[in-house]
Amino acid sequence: MKKYLSIFMLICLLAGGGSLAGAVQKPDYEKYGRIAIAVVKEDYPGEEVVDYQYGGRKKVTETDVTDTFTFTVKEDGNPVTILVMVTHNLKDNKAVSLSVERKTQ
After folding, report:
1. DSSP E strand boundaries for 23-77
2. Helix, strand, coil shares of the chain as percentages rounded to 5?
3. Which among 16, 58, 88, 98 has most CB atoms closer than 10 A?
């Protein structure tokens, strides 16, 4: 009986470990996306954010990268495109700089 119980426990352990390996990982830019959203909401309080896209990553130095986020905000009923660029260090995951640009249509 102990033999069957041990085999059953091993199968359960392996099955549980396999499901962890297949778990969805959060993208590494998610933290900076949350920062970008907070900045846009602060700059455009009460306005509706109607679109959000991750624009990609650009290497700045050996350790620093810039993640770009594009937002479309309805300001007084008109769409406005906002570009947020967050430069951060890959080693310590600390933000180095943040810039916000309003794009003209």
Report:
1. 48-59, 64-75
2. 30, 45, 25
3. 88
Token pair for 62:
């050996």
Tens-of-pLDDT digits for all 105 residues of the chain? Answer: 444 444 444 444 444 444 444 456 677 889 999 999 999 999 999 999 999 999 999 999 999 999 999 999 999 889 999 999 999 998 888 887 999 999 876
List the structure tokens of 33.
């996306």
Concatenating the DSSP letter of every residue in the chain gives -HHHHHHHHHHHHHHHHHHHHTSPPPPTTHHHHHHHHHHHHHHSTT-EEEEEEEEEEEE-SSSEEEEEEEEEEEETTEEEEEEEEEEEETTT--EEEEEEEEEP-
pTM: 0.72
